[in-house]
TrEMBL record:
Pfam families: DEAD, PriA_3primeBD, PriA_C, Zn_ribbon_PriA
Gene responsible for this protein: priA
Descriptive protein name: Replication restart protein PriA
The protein's required cofactors: Zn(2+)
Membership in a protein family: Belongs to the helicase family. PriA subfamily.
Amino acid sequence: MSAAKATSGNLFADDPAFQVTAQTISVLPPLPLAGPYDYLVPEGLSVAPGDFVEIPLGRQTQRGVVWGQAKGDVESSKLREIYGVLPTEPMADVTRRFVDWVSAYTMAPQGAVLRMAMSVPDALEAPKPIFRFTLNRDFDAASLRMTPPRKRVLEFLGTHPPMEQGDILRETGAGASVVKGLVEAGAVQRLMVTPPSPFDLPDLSIPRPDLSDEQTEAADALCARVEEGSFSCTLLDGITGSGKTEVYFEPIRAALAQGKQVVVLLPEIALSAQWLQRFRDRFGVEPALWHSEVGQARRRDTWRAVADGSARLVVGARSALFLPYHDLGLIVVDEEHEHAFKQEDGVIYHARDMAVTRAHLGGIPVVLASATPSLETLANVEAGRYQRVELGNRHGVAVLPSVEIIDIRSDKPERNRWITPTLKKRLVETFANGEQAMLFLNRRGYAPLTLCRACGHRFQCPNCTAWLVEHRAWGKLQCHHCGYQAKAPDTCPECGAEGKLAPCGPGVERLFEEAVETFPDIRIEVATSDNIMGPKAATELVRRVHNHEVDLLIGTQILAKGYHFPMLTLVGVVDADLGLAGGDLRAAERSYQLLTQVAGRAGRGDRPGTVILQTADPANRVIKAIAAGDRDAFNEVELSQRMTHGMPPHGRLAALIISGKKENEVDEAAWRIGRVAPRGDGLMVLGPAPAPLSLLRGRYRRRFLIRADKGVKMQALIHDWLSKVKTPGSVRIQVDIDPYSFM
Ligand code: ADP
Ligand code: ZN
């Protein structure tokens, strides 16, 4: 704790970063401003780097973190004094260096990054103390007027550790006034204690499951990294169902045994009910969860417990990386290839890459787990920067499912139907065997487009370059980019024709309708982010599927990851071409990863599984690679194509997105930026071009794409470039280093 200390004269005497005796310091507020500002330290107050302080900023009182020595860019007579130091554990040096690093890499202001590390303002207040009561053993009971309730309370406290009032009253049946009277008489003492951590210590005595030889070898390798206690990055590369989770539980245990903290990043934490149960079983405690669904009070307690080190196991979404760890010893990134790790708003960063950086700064190991590692990670393995441990077999008797391709051009479904005759036959067989099936279609809603058959009018979002998606269950048309909603109309707003509006293409709701008509006797359930919105719903779904209360699951990508249903033997991918349509840099890779994940849901128990891919392009190399189960061949072709074009992981990419509410202003700004675009060897700037989503949430958008050779200092280049142009405040320029979204 570093509450106000007496001044010793030389404020930063023991910090080599502060060679001068400074009465001025710099403080970074968690705001997207230029950077830290200089402040004076009032007489009698001592502060150290990392301290949370209260400062005047403009006319407001702000909180910030002492960032270091004063910058000296403002005369000290013009500086204002800090108000005081907050009674919070100071922010660790490594966390501050991490903030600086992320800011430099993503080109987001330091304060915007700091804000992610200070996301719970309440946590900076001193925790409210609680009171406990205990017997005063020196008190002479003879002087006390004894009543039966007083007697009960005294006897109870005599045989128990200090207790909170509520427990005393409940156990003894006495009223609050009895306790109060005993305190006043001096028979009972009131103790003020800091509230205990809401997180229990993990139980390290729970035995691990019997690991196979292959699993043991992998687990030992990862545990060795933890024992080394220095930076390393290891890819845990194992096919779906090979037991990656069981394996990385071992290094987690090893780090906990060293008394360190561990964070596991998961792409869809709110839906990871099954995973969390395994976690509880293995470590005997509730982990500290960190994601957007966690309530405010819990966030506050969690933030504090991470800062004081009492939360030992943290499981979270990408933002968990920015928590102020007391002593982090290991980071695990599960499903490291997932694009959900890329944050696209505010500070634009990729949590997997930042996790590696955080581990590097902290001198600790990081484990990246995946069945379909990203090409970036594989390239790092090739280059020797990352190590790799492999799991090539499914656990137990399970084997990878066989994959069949159905060409929908010859094996045609009926009009406005999407299940081919062959897939239908397979589904019938599966249900007849008492097994379960899943139909995968990565499209929410009923139909992705609504068309007027009389005039050709298409329903479009007023705020975005996007069609409105019909959600028949709610009677609404919705934009999946901005959330705009309109009531589904009966007449065409363009030509007034009645009853001419037609849904085009399938969404899961429409597929459900088809399945219900095709298989009237089986139990069907739809799972999308529209109805499985949190941990409760996900747990409930898992329970129903496990208990075989569901025969057929229909769902989007939320079903693709992590789930383990032993009786699920058939997976039908309704439109395997869907992800390939976009045609961006990573479309093939992403599609390959998603289809592999989906396919990986089949045949995880004793019964072998089958995956059926419905496609209109059976010669496509993604489809062929999935069918052949040949990941290496696919990656090789993909990598060589990227190499030809100098694309990541061989070259570097960045994007600029210029946006604003007035189209002409955006165009003007984009044109001016384009005029001073950098040129040079190993560098190519494309744009300005309208973004594929040229209108998003009411903002017009133009894009630049910058491709550079590995050696080019991308951030410095963009910094120089943008400093040459002045653009109006109404136009926003976002920099996206290593873009994953090309919309
Ligand atoms: P992955 O993450 O590689 O897809 P999981 O860790 O989910 O694989 O393991 C698949 C299933 O096999 C899970 O139900 C898991 O509990 C089980 N399993 C894996 N290894 C073992 C083991 N050594 N002993 C018992 N069960 C295991
Ligand atoms: Zn929209």
